[in-house]
Amino acid sequence: GLSQYSSDPRTEWDLNAYSSRDQVLEAVRNLRYKGGNTFTGLALTHVLEQNLKPDAGARLEAEKLVILLTDGKSQDDANLVAQTLKNLGIEIFAIGVKNADEAELKQVASEPLELTVYNVLDFPLLSSLVGRLTQVLCTRIKEKSNKEYTGSAVKDIPVNMGPQLSPTDLKISAVTSKSMHLTWSPPLRPPKKYRVVYYPSKGGISKEVVLDGAVSSLQLSNLTSNTEYLLSVFPIYDTAVGDGLRGVTSTLPLSSPRSLRVSELSHNSIRLSWKAAQGATQYLVLCSAAPDGAED
């Protein structure tokens, strides 16, 4: 299975999409590169919430591995959800290219780091990792499978976390040109943290807020006026991530001055007056001579 991410993760194909090596290689050849931001935390949440579920082809008896490939430092908190994945027994391998933050790779990856963290200077050099990485991955799968057969506990991702772990009823209120208020109903089992992610639907910088699990409301401020925002609320537990609660709403346009009036005309001056725009701290007044033949 494969997902690409920027500020909005996108599943390219699920674990059960292809059944042969040739099919997978053909899918890779047809892959379109997704540019944009680097929200690794959101991407790992997407993998856990969407890609590692039975309806996406994840088999409960199979070992779970996540290979993260990134060329930059994450713009959100990747460690929280990475720890959740690792608590579920999912191994994370982190591969950095170019401007990747090696300290962050080591924080996200599973132990032992000498087997799970790789960093190269440019994309063509990734080919040098293939042989070793393939060997390490296969060996780790065999080791974990042997532990399972000898009776060691292996944690499975919950098949259906249901309302017990997921918030409901997202309400958006008090919407202004630069703020809005979010509230939701907490799940039956309070989470350790909430992760609230919001970003403009037509592209732009994604932001996130991490809240204590006892809190179920948030005031978002410093938003852009007259803009549609996508909102997601993720409950984070020690060993699971509940289904995300999502919403969409638009901020109001900035208020405009009204009723422009002209008075006190002279040969070189004009007096203008208008009804004030709510919240305006300054006005910019532009004037130019009308072209010949235009109405004065």
Automatic annotation (TrEMBL):
| Protein name, entry field | COKA1 protein
- Asked if the record carries the keyword Secreted, the reply is yes
Q: Name one Pfam family in it.
A: fn3
The organism encoding this protein is Nyctiprogne leucopyga
**Where would you find this protein in the cell?**
Secreted, Extracellular space, Extracellular matrix
- Residue intervals of the Fibronectin type-III domain: 166-255
Any idea where the VWFA domain is? 1-133
Keywords per UniProt: Extracellular matrix, Secreted
Q: Does the keyword Secreted apply?
A: yes
UniProt xrefs under InterPro entries = ECM_Assembly_Org, FN3_dom, FN3_sf, Ig-like_fold, VWF_A, vWFA_dom_sf
